[in-house]
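== Polypeptide entry ==
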Amino acid sequence: MLFNSFIFFIFLGVVVPLTYVLPSKKAKNIFLLAASYFFYGYWDWRFLGLLLLSSIIDFIVGKALYAAEEESQRKRLLMVSLIANLGILGFFKYFNFFTASFIELSSVIGLSVDYLHLNIILPVGISFYTFQTLSYSIDIYRKKLKPSENFIDFALFVSFFPQLVAGPIERASVLLPQLSKKLAPTKVQIQEGIVLIITGLFRKVIIGDTSGKYVDQIFGNIHLYNSIELLSGLVLFSVQIYADFSGYSLIARGTAKLLGVELMVNFSQPYLSRNITEFWRRWHISLSSWLKDYLYISLGGNRKGDQRTYINLMLTMLLGGLWHGASWNFVIWGGLHGIYLAIHKMFLKDRKIDSTDSALFNLKTILNILVTYILVLFTWLFFRSTSWDNTILFIERVIDWRASEYSLFFLRVTVSYLVVVLLIDLTSYKAYYNLPIFQNKGVKYGLLTAMFALTLAYMFQAESSPFIYFSF
């Protein structure tokens, strides 16, 4: 079920009021669990079994892990969770990727093994809820968390519909305690939730979907465009993916607030970052923090010398790239970010990153932001390109610098989108999406009403576009 669809509005209009009137915590959670399974099953009911299986495995493993005293037994139990969850994820997400690579390699030496290819459908959201359940088991193994005693609460933690399909990837230590008590949203939460939903829909529908039309046209016909148009397409993709994914996260947070649940902030104006390390503290925060806590630190982090630190960064980002999709393009994307992070850490040494925003508008800061954005922009090429041949063609046509009669048009379109995104981010830089810059309530709510009306008008005349991260 898409957030940017009218069926979701109907679903929300039924679920939220019914949740308010249910008398007990148990009744609310059973109802929300059923609603979450309906929400997920609306896409394809056949994959509800995977969601339930993952929940059962980690619920049982979590209780056994907490009760086990011998370290060898605890390691075996953790391996059960890792093998089960990563095995399911690996089969559905990466089987065809690795078999396709093997088939291509075999053809070089004259072998035909096409029969290995299977037509496997990727379950929506499997990467997100797999990481969420894994963090639960790992935290119990590390003795940082006690297991849930109530399966309904735990199953709801895994399948909570606002963040089930595309995050944020929540930690059990934060979300489970909220679900383990009777949900009762405050007036402030309801107000903030509505603001977040409207803002998120505007980002997704008006900015993400409209810029995406230009992106699809350009990247679908790279051979028809010259340098300026292609670069415009790449910049517009950086706008599209940011608006699309941050829009989803805002709607998720807003929907959760309507139910009395607080989800983590997943984006914090990443394109205003002054270096690549800061970028990853602001972009897809739930994933970057997950990779840091459960992969980078597990590999040794920065505790085993500089050289090992750089290797750990590379491995973390390579696997982070592969998490996004079964394609060598994503591996390259992750590898480039790993190189960026390693180089930045090399120059940074033991100095701390200045996270203050007092000097946002001085020349040095602006230049740092611009350089960081350009570095990130280059990596988006590999993220968006559909094949290696298209990637090479894109680079060749940009290097062979040419303009056309359409260049000025695409420049105007690109600058317009950049200005809109920059204005939104600047007004949100210090206070996250509550529009505090407008002291007058009439102006504030008038703007929100206009945003919502514009979004609805577009939704009535255009088909709903899936969120980009649904495919991950």
Summary: Confidence is low (pLDDT under 50) at residues 432-437. The chain has two domains: 6-184, 188-275+353-471. The radius of gyration is 23 Å. The CA atoms of residues 176 and 183 lie 12 Å apart.
